[in-house]
Each structure stands twice: as structure tokens, then as C-alpha cells.
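ok so for the tutorial part 2 we go from a plain amino acid sequence to predicted C-alpha cells. step 1 is just haveing the sequence, like this:
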Amino acid sequence: MTVGGGAGGAPSAIDAKKLRIYGIGGALVGIYLAAILNSVLGTDIFSILAAAGAVAAAVMGANAVRRVCGYGIGTGVPSIGMLALGMGIVGASFGLSTAEQLGVSMAGVIIALVYAMVFGYIVGAIANKVMGFNIPIMEEGLTDLSGAGAMAIIGWSYAISGSLAYADMVSKVFNTGYLAIVFICGGLAILHPFNANLGPDEKQDRTLVNGLMVGSLAVVAVGLCSLATLSTTAAIITIVIGAAAWYYFYVWYYRLVKRDAAAVVGTGLLPPSAL
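step 2 — the prediction. this is what the C-alpha cells look like for a chain of 275 residues:
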């Protein structure tokens, strides 16, 4: 996250275009690498790679939230995160189901990404031109958010189902109710970083490291879900790596909080009179 020096000791911002490449590229590489390695080697232990790819997409989404919500939409910060996953579910379902009907399941991720980003642009245009938000980057932001949501849904759903087949996603993720966990955890990974760091001292690196931290928690959550759908080994690998990543990014985030805070003090317990 360090890209040269910036004001207040913080690194200068990473360009949105670069983060888009990192997010989409990381998600596609993680998901496809997991699918190919699992298929070729006849295992499911590489499902963690798809979960990691979903984290990359979520960080891209978190940056889109900070850019759009930086215009001051207030309580819309949580809403836009839920919108991202809502658009993502539509895109993921359309892409995977269409690919399955065409007999090319592996193409479902690409179809889902393209459809989701077009869908996001249309929603952004409606928000600006019909609802009157008048945010200059609304279309671009919702395009990124929809794409990030679709990749997060597919990546974490793959980590539960171990398959890109739409029928497997439906039976192991949708019908089991695990989709709700993917939706909430994925939404938090996208919306919570800016929601937790907004204000005049918000810094991109601190916000995005928070996204990596919450995204790692989502990996732990889908790992727990996969105990019922994948091999115990694959599930434990996902849980352990997710927990280790969460701890690493938690320590990193706390260090950034101390860097940016005016003061870090311990208040102790509340006095009995205040309880």
C-alpha cells in the first residue's frame, strides 16, 4: 500500500484504474486458478484461491465506495455496499446460468463480470439522471461496485461449493442459505472500510487495509460454511489462512490508526456512577 510519500506521513493514493486492474485481475486469477487446479488434480483444497480472489474484488469495491461516498451521501454508505452485492448476485446468477445453458461453465465468470458492470453503469446513470444524485463519478463507481460484487459473490460461493456450475452453486450456496452469509460478509467488506474511516482524516491506505481485514473475516466465514460442503482439509485450510490474514491486517490497520490519530488513550472502565 505504500506508493510514495504523502501528506501527514500517509502514502499517496493508488489510482482507481490500477485498483480496478488489481481487483478484477486478482479475482479472475484466483477463481480460475482454483477451478483449474481443483479440476486437474481432482481435489478441492485450492478453493481458498477463489476466496482470496474475492477479497481482491472487495478491496476494489471498497475503494469505489470511498470515491462515491466522498461526495457526502451520508447514511448511503451502508446502502451502497448492500447495493453492490445485490447487483453482484444478479450478475453472478445471470453469468453462471447463461454459461451453463450454453455448455461453457468456465466462461460464466467472464459473462457475469461483463453483465454486472453494464448493469452497474445503468443503475449509476439512473441514480444520477433520474434520481438526481448529480455525483460526477456515480456511473463509474457503480460500474466498479457491481463488478466487485459479482466477483465477490462468485469467489466466495466457489469457496463453499467448489464448483463454477450454476446447479452446484444453487444446491450448495443458495438453497442452503449460505448465500446470506456471503451477502452480508461481502457487503461488509465493501461498505465497512469507508464507513469506519470516513471523516476529514480518512486515508486511502487505512481504509483499504480495513477492507483486507474484513475481507479476511469473510474468508473465515465461508470456510466455516464449507465444512458442510467440501472436504474437511479444504475447509480448515480456508479457515486457517483467513484467520491468519485477518490477524495480519488487523495489526497493520491498528498501526495505521495510531499513525493517523491525534492521540491514543486508554479510558479504562466506566465509573460505577455512570452505569
